[in-house]
Design brief:
Length: 167
């Protein structure tokens, strides 16, 4: 059982064998293993970030999903967020080159080991806490989100960037 990606409300569970989840112990463990496999010197197969910046970027998105980082809704999100969310909550992996909000862009140098450890801790914490880990606040671009939508988007986002670095 994992949270429904498109359920009518938060904390509703349905069987979705084909979708992976931060909340499923085996899927969470797979992400942890993939994050551990990253190295500071690993080069991206696409994009501009180095591996430490990618970890910091993913950590920022995860902190928004838990409510630890609060960002204001953007006008463009208010206008187009629901449509974008509908497209991104489909089972397919994220495509390369999707736009990134300025708040999620990491340009400065980061400490790889520190970013890796913080991301590992947050991924594992979400797995332990379950659906309660996700905020009730709207996403700054996509708007209101169910637990299943937060879960699905965070898993897909991490998967996208781990694939970017061959992990």
């Amino acid at each position: 059982m994992i949270p429904a990606s498109l359920g009518p409300g938060p904390r509703q569970l349905v069987t979705r064998e084909h979708l992976q989840s931060l909340l499923q112990p085996a899927d969470n463990a797979e992400l942890v293993k993939r994050i551990h496999a990253l190295r500071a010197e690993t080069k991206a197969t696409w994009g501009k970030m180095d591996s430490a910046q990618m970890l910091a970027h993913c950590l920022t998105a995860m902190r928004v999903s838990t409510g630890e980082l609060k960002l204001k809704r953007s006008l463009i999100g208010l206008l187009f967020g629901r449509l974008a969310k509908k497209s991104l909550t489909k089972p397919e992996p994220f495509k390369r080159g999707l736009p990134t909000a300025p708040e999620f862009v990491v340009r400065d140098r980061r400490d790889f080991e520190l970013e890796q450890q913080k991301l590992l801790e947050l991924v594992q914490d979400i797995g332990r806490r379950g659906p309660a880990a996700f905020t009730r606040e709207p996403h700054p671009f996509f708007g209101p989100m169910t637990d299943g939508e937060w879960d699905l988007l965070q898993w897909k986002h991490l998967d996208h960037h781990l694939r970017q670095f061959g992990a």
